[in-house]
Amino acid sequence: MMKTAGLVAGQLIQVRTKEEILATLDRRGQLDGLPFMPEMLAFAGKRFRVFKRAHKTCDPPSGIGGRKMSSAVHLDDLRCDGQAHGGCEARCLFFWKEAWLKPVDGGPALESTATRPAGPGATEEEVWAGTRAEGEDPSSLDPVFVCQSTRVPQATQPIRWWDFRQYVEDYTSGNVTLSKMTASFLAYIWHELVMAGFGVGSALRVAYDAFQKARGGTPYPWRFGRIPVGSKTPVSTLNLQPGELVRVKSYEQILGTITDQGINRGMSFDAEMVPFCGKTYRVLARINKIINEKTGKMQSMKTACIILEDVVCTACYAAFRRFCPRAIYPYWREIWLERVESSALGDPVEGKQPGSYRLAPVAENGRSAALTAIGREEAAASMAARSACVPDACGH
After folding, report:
1. Of 67, 242, 246, 310, which has the fewest CB atoms closer than 10 Å, so is most exposed?
2. Mean pLDDT, the chain cut into blocks of 10 residues (396 residues total)
3. Which helix (H) or strand (E) holds 58?
4. Can you tell me the distance from the alpha carbon of 91 to that of 114, in angstroms, rounded to the nearest whole number?
5. Where are the domains of the chain?
6. Is 43 exposed, middle or buried (0-12, 13-18, 19+ CB in 10 A)?
7. Does residue 322 contact residue 171 with C-beta atoms inside 8 Å?
């Protein structure tokens, strides 16, 4: 693996040329097990700021633990549009290896200790071929896809939640402020006291709620849903469209739509979604299909699934992947939202204005790998795992 060069959040970098990047890759279009994807080609030669250092990440399909990655960053909201991966709509942040970047603000040159390919690197055609599993029939209508998300286990190593070095790097890299880190750990300690079985859990929850209400914060977010496991959960059809204003329902209302395990029709409502309850956002997109990160197969949604602008995972409450910088969009059931008419809007709208997100455009050669047949059943376990890594506003 490569040596970390120390890129920090906010640092200005330039993506290297296509030729320079291809020279770092093996014949599968990968470096240290991480694919360079065709959707990233459009950014070659351009300048961006580092969003966060990707020294660690999550891999929800493989469990709740964190993973460590060397010499990689996320750039300022550069997300995949799925053009080379069957039109996947997950909008994942790209991982950028430091070998593919160079600083332009006077920082030190990036130093790579990666093992270079024995040959001349990869061709652009091999990068495209690398989007399918090795040996996959190129004409298959139901292929096994390969992307950065499906390769997380191969491109990372396990990291223990108690390894304090990761939190030092969270702070020194600029990923997490000291105030947010402190608030997150205090909430974790309080929750552990609630769950310790000393007979004071209820009183501690009441005290937490009273304190948060006084400061306008979020109520105790680790509560159980009211629907017994095995019972049918309710559904609502709003047919929400991108750009519409919605208000997230109150926490109490949402608890009435999920099981005591926090599930509504295979999708999890996590404690870290609670800070957004009662607030108003714009709909960013309807999610109809995503690649299952565990199997590489495309799967379609049976029930409407919504993502909201600026509502992404920061993993402030996640005990085993705390402060993961991957910024995955959580998925919202329409029954957790309510439409807001512009004329009736009283609360400020959180997030950016429509169209402010940078997705990878179609690559210059114009190729697209859109599937003509999907129809796969939604994998409930995978959906619950992905939605379990959901947003949080540290310090709420």
Report:
1. 242
2. 69 98 97 98 98 95 90 96 98 98 74 53 97 91 97 96 95 96 94 93 95 92 93 96 98 97 94 91 97 96 94 88 94 98 66 52 36 33 41 50
3. strand 56-58
4. 28
5. 12-169, 177-387
6. buried
7. no
377: its two tokens: 């059943």
Q: Quick one: tokens of 130? A: 């690398």
Question: pTM, whole model, 2 decimals?
Answer: 0.86
3-state secondary structure of 179: helix
| Spatial separation of the C-alpha atoms in residues 304 and 244, rounded to whole Å | 15
Contact 248, 277 (CB under 8 A): yes
Strand order across the 337-339 sheet: 306-308, 280-286, 245-248, 337-339
| 370-374 contacts at long range (C-beta below 8 A, 24 or more positions apart) | 370/83, 370/86, 370/87, 371/86, 371/87, 371/141, 371/142, 371/143, 371/298, 372/141, 373/141, 373/142, 374/86, 374/142, 374/289, 374/298, 374/299, 374/300
Based on C-alpha coordinates, what's the Rg of the chain? Answer: 21
Backbone conformation region of residue 325, classed left if phi is above 0, alpha if psi is from -120 to 50, else beta? alpha
Residue found under tokens 């509502």: 311
Which amino acid is located at 108 in the chain? P
Q: Is the dihedral angle over the CA atoms 71, 132, 125, 361 positive or is it negative?
A: negative
145 to each of 7, 37, 134, 168, how far by Cα in Å?
30, 11, 10, 35
Q: In 3D, which of 386, 325, 360 has the Cα closest to residue 69?
A: 325
Show the tokens assigned to 329: 């969009």
Q: Judging by beta carbons within 10 Å of its beta carbon (0-12, 13-18, 19+), is residue 353 exposed, middle or buried?
A: exposed
